[in-house]
Each structure stands twice: as structure tokens, then as C-alpha cells.
Amino acid sequence: MNKFCYKNAVFYYSFGDCAYISGNDTTFNYALIESCSEDFYNALLERGWRRFGEVFFAPFCDYCNKCVSIRQLVDEFVFSKNNKRIMSKNKIIDVVLGIPTYSLEKLELYNKYHTIMNIKKGWEYNNINRDRYLHMFIDGKNSFGKEICYYLDGKLIGVAFVDILKTTSSMSAIYFFYDHSYSHLSLGTFSILKQLEIAKMFNIKYFYPGYWIENHHSLGYKERFRPFEYLINRPNIYEIPIWKLHTKG
């Protein structure tokens, strides 16, 4: 692991096994940033970085560029007939947007979700405690971190975390976990659609859903929400990012 400092940020990088493509190695750049401003955060988003807790990160693998940063053009996104059906059947769900907070109910739902994902998809997982939950989802929220809670008949069935950067007209999806007992409600798709709806409400220009790998079993779904642009270079913090409209399919 190596690191260097830049203003109020500490940058470092590390190597490991790729979580998305079996047999591949990966190189990630990380940044610990104290009181990150929306402008600086937006500059990182434009250059392919993401936030999780207090850490910002981006892949910079030497021999692979399959993890692609994309962003939906919010104003141009139109709900399809299938999107509208999903939104309509989930009118029974109460959606609450607020500041990220901790509760035992959220912690238990998180652990339940990952226990099932371990069985279904082989995700490595050990139950987390309160301190770990705070570190992952509450720390680093600053002024832009938000939480979307989904309730059905008063029961919490899903939690999404997003960053809303109003001054730069950007929104970034951080994480989502839900109760698999309600999989028939297409909660993953519903959550993305609800986030795009919220983005429209706040007049957001770009919605960053995270990294996309074409035809990937876990990350390929993000291309269903169009139109979107993709980052064609991997610029450092001094270089200009180049985005291109995706036109395939």
C-alpha cells in the first residue's frame, strides 16, 4: 500500500483479487477526505470515483478496464411501460427520504440481506455490529448523504443510501439492501426508479449508479436505465474526464 497527500485528502492504493471477474487482479485508488466539499466530490465523480463511508475509491487496473463509470441523464430519462408497472404496484410502499441514522431494525435487515446473498451468490460475509454499520453508512455523510427507507405496512423492507449534490446537480447511488421476502415487488429496480424520480424532483442533471460491466450478472442491469453516458478514460485528479453517450442496443 502506498499513499500521498493532496490538500485535505490522503490518497493511497492497494492490490487484491477482483470481486467481479474471477481470476483477475485489481488495483484500487482510495482517498480519505476530511469535510469533502460538494465541488471536490463532484470532480471525483466526474473522474470515476465513488464514496463509501469516509472513503472515496476508484479502480485503476493495469490490464483491465471492464468496470466502467456511467451516469444517467436524468432530464432525458423516460419511465418505460414496465417501469410504470413496477412503480404502480409499489404504491403500497411508503418511501421516506432523510438523513442516514442507525437503528437495530436497519442493522438486522442488513445482516439478513447479506446472509441470503451469501447463500444465493456466494458473497463472503460475517454479521456486522452497530459500530461497523455506523462506519459504513453514517460516517462521511457530510451534508450530502441521504437515506431512503422503504416501509410496507409499517415494516422496514429496504434501505438505500444516496449522495445528493445540489450545488453541482449530481446524485450518486451508494448502497441498497432489502428483505428478500418481498422480492416479488422487484425492489432493486423499484429503488433505482425511485432514486431517478427523486433526482428529477431535485432537478439533478446526472445520476451516478455506480460501476457497470456489460453483460455482467451483477452489474450489467444498470444499462437498462437510459440514456446514459460512460467515462471513456481514467483521468487522474488533474486531467479532464471524457464522457460519451452510450448508443448500443
Please describe the structure with a list of short key phrases separated by commas or semicolons:
13 strands; 249 residues; eight-stranded mixed sheet; alpha+beta; 5 helices; Aminopeptidase
Description:
The chain has two domains: 106 residues, no CATH class; 133 residues, 3-Layer(aba) Sandwich (Aminopeptidase), CATH 3.40.630.30. It has an eight-stranded mixed beta sheet with strand order 7-8-9-10-11-6-12-13. A five-stranded antiparallel beta sheet has the order 1-2-3-5-4, with no helix packed on it. The chain is 24% helix and 34% strand. The protein is an alpha+beta fold. It contains five helices and 13 strands.
Q: How large is the share of residues in beta strands?
A: 25-35%
CATH topology of the largest domain: Aminopeptidase
Mean pLDDT: 91
End-to-end gap = 40 Å
Helix content class: 10-25%
Largest sheet: 8 strands, mixed
The class by helix and strand makeup works out as: alpha+beta
The number of strands is 13
The strands making up the biggest β-sheet line up spatially as 7-8-9-10-11-6-12-13
Radius of gyration: 18 Å
Please trace the helix and strand order, writing H or E for each element. EEEHEEEHEHHEEEHEEE
Low-confidence stretches: 1-6
How many domains make up the 3D coordinates?
2
Shape: globular
Question: CATH superfamily membership of the largest domain, which one?
Answer: Gcn5-related N-acetyltransferase (GNAT)
Determine the number of helices (DSSP H or I, runs of at least 4 residues).
Answer: 5
CATH class of the largest domain: Alpha Beta
Q: Which architecture of the largest domain per CATH?
A: 3-Layer(aba) Sandwich
